[in-house]
Specification:
Alpha-D-Glucose-1,6-Bisphosphate, Chain A, domain 4; single chain; 7-stranded mixed beta sheet; 5 helices; 180 residues; alpha+beta; 26% strand
């Protein structure tokens, strides 16, 4: 059974879904799952996910150098192309409009050595009650050596804190846009 730091906001059946990141990282050490319900249309949620091209939407004072993530949709950011930079350290691997965004830590930067190989899929699942579920799966292959030991201890909890904030922000922003 995965620990509490590995699963937040998801239902057991959601852990069994097919995620695009599974095709890109076949060998991994751990998987983390995060989820949230959002009262909004898939199109709006997808556009907010595209905003990660310019900001992380978690705790900006930690991972956005103190700059506030944009609180309004920026036109054109939803024009995605494989290979684009996402949240500074990731690259866009695959996307399907209004359904998912899949990213991976860039291979040529320090973050790969620090965090290890990490792939992430943000999956939008429409529900019949006017809501969507935003389910995220992270696959992590930790770095070798002492850094890998430290990351096994720190990364699950650190990611839980940061991604929880990110998903709550996406929920709040998507519901505001959808209501207007």
């Amino acid at each position: 059974m995965p620990s509490k730091s590995h699963i937040w906001g998801t239902e057991p059946h959601e852990l069994l879904l097919d995620f695009p990141c599974d095709r890109f990282i076949e060998v991994f050490d751990e998987a983390y799952y995060r989820g949230i319900s959002i009262r909004s249309e898939p199109e709006i949620i997808f556009r907010w996910l595209c905003q990660m091209r310019v900001a992380p939407y978690s705790y900006d004072w930690i991972d956005n150098f103190g700059r506030r993530s944009p609180q309004k949709l920026i036109p054109g950011l939803d024009n995605l192309a494989v290979g684009q930079t996402v949240m500074t350290i990731f690259e866009l691997l695959e996307f399907k409009r209004n359904q998912h965004v899949t990213i991976r830590i860039k291979k040529d930067i320090f973050a790969l050595k620090f965090f290890g190989d990490t792939g992430v899929s943000y999956l939008i699942i429409p529900q019949s009650d006017g809501k969507c579920r935003l389910i995220v799966k992270l696959l992590v292959r930790y770095p070798q050596g002492i850094l890998g030991v430290l990351m096994r201890l720190i990364l699950p909890w650190g990611d839980l804190i940061m991604m929880r904030r990110q998903l709550i922000n996406f929920k709040e922003l998507s519901e505001i846009v959808d209501a207007s």
